[in-house]
Specification:
- Helix content is about 30%, strand content about 30%.
- The chain has one helix spanning about 15-45; strands at about 55-60, 65-70, 80-90, 95-100.
- The chain has a four-stranded antiparallel β-sheet with strand order 1-2-3-4, covered by helices on one side.
Length: about 110
């Protein structure tokens, strides 16, 4: 036997609509961050891992195009951009093109 609440539900007010919109934005932001991480991993996989790797920065530019910078150094104060690529990726983060061409160096 199923029991269902017979209580009427309160209509969505402006506060609920705002929370719903924020939730959608949070999900979209999470998807973008995950896609950026995959693009960075793809570049690093193709390049190899340089000594003193600090971070791989992925900046979305426009539709499926990114600037990927590979930073190396002892710490953030002495960081250098060791490699920089303009990347075109598919919707799943797979690198389709890169300028300059990514060559395995490490």
């Amino acid at each position: 036997m199923r029991t269902e609440s017979t209580r009427p539900r309160a209509p969505k007010g402006p506060d609920q609509a705002t929370r719903d919109a924020e939730g959608i934005r949070d999900v979209e932001a999470g998807k973008r961050e995950a896609l950026n991480a995959i693009v960075g991993e793809q570049v690093l996989h193709a390049l190899g891992e340089p000594a003193g790797l600090l971070m791989v920065q992925v900046r979305p530019l426009w539709e499926r195009r990114y600037r990927v910078n590979v930073f190396t150094g002892g710490d953030a104060a002495s960081a250098l951009v060791a490699h920089s690529y303009f990347v075109v990726a598919d919707g799943e983060g797979n690198v389709l093109e890169a300028t300059p061409t990514i060559r395995r160096q490490y």
